[in-house]
Write a structure and sequence with these properties.
This is Pentapeptide repeats (8 copies). The protein is an all-alpha fold and 285 residues long. The chain is built from eight helices and no strands.
């Protein structure tokens, strides 16, 4: 079997940066396929597969400019990385659930599957955008190629995927990549405790702290004060950043940080973000 050549770092960065949601190319899938539960994030209960009452015929949101004011904060946080337009434009060949209602259920179920594939692609490409040992680069490239091919499957094939089986090897590779990248980022004489997976720092005052290279996978950082903190090379996979204060923080090289995590946090113009993430419109100085 011919081995794939490791993807160059600049190409990997381009792949990661290209994963952006384009709602104009979607059929309002996040507004239909997902289950909403009335809470601080959503003003209503909405079962999966039922269109949100704010969704219009043209798949645009009737209250898009007032979502937060109307109690739909969660809608401004959500990001599918482009999975929605992939389902709409490629998997279903631009045939919407309105025009072909017989495909609606299948489309709505395929959307979250594609979303998970896109997330794995994003993390794998991001890992490849950093320098690492050749063996790890080869393994990451192989996984990226596989994941990209999976996104081109038919709807029926997507629904039959063993996502847990695909996630396991990706998780193992990302752990290895994270460890290697973080070690390069931390000063040799550093004495901080770098392994903090799943730590409960809800509401904790971490203002101005040097947290470079810390493993915060799955950490609870709800409402934590991380203002002006150095968060470079911090592994944020699965971390809960809801209402965390990131004003003035340096996340320029934070690892595996998603747009949804950033959207759920608080920040300002001084917050430094990775190049592949956008500054949320609701962040204000």
């Amino acid at each position: 079997m011919t081995l794939l050549q490791p993807i160059p770092q600049n190409q990997a960065r381009e792949i990661r940066s290209s994963l952006k949601a384009d709602c104009t190319q979607c059929f309002g899938l996040c507004c239909t396929a997902l289950n909403l539960i009335a809470s601080n994030d959503f003003a209503i209960n909405k079962p999966a597969g039922i269109p949100c009452p704010n969704l219009q015929k043209d798949y645009r949101c009737r209250i898009h400019s007032e979502l937060r004011e109307k109690g739909f904060k969660g809608c401004t946080v959500f990001d599918c990385l482009g999975a929605g337009q992939m389902i709409a434009q490629t998997t279903f060949g631009r045939n919407s659930w309105q025009n072909q209602p017989e495909n609606a259920e299948k489309m709505f179920k395929a959307f979250p599957v594609m979303e998970q594939l896109f997330e794995m692609i994003a993390f794998t490409a991001e890992a490849l955008s950093y320098k690492s040992n050749p063996v790890l680069q080869q393994e990451l490239t192989k996984q990226l190629d596989l994941l990209q091919r999976l996104t081109k499957l038919s709807a029926d094939e997507l629904l039959n995927l063993d996502l847990i089986g695909y996630r396991h090897p990706v998780k193992e590779l990302l752990v290895k990549a994270s460890r290697e990248i973080r070690r390069r980022a931390v000063p040799v004489n550093g004495k901080r405790k770098l392994e903090q997976p799943g730590v409960d720092w809800m509401g904790k005052n971490l203002k101005g702290k040097d947290l470079r290279g810390t493993n915060l996978r799955g950490a609870y950082l709800i409402a934590a004060d991380l203002a002006k903190s150095d968060l470079r090379a911090v592994d944020f996979i699965g971390a809960d950043l809801r209402d965390a204060n990131l004003c003035g923080a340096d996340l320029s090289t934070s690892l595996f940080l998603t747009q949804m995590q950033i959207n759920s946090a608080k920040g300002n113009q001084q917050t430094q973000l990775p190049v592949h993430l956008d500054r949320p419109f609701h962040w204000k100085d």
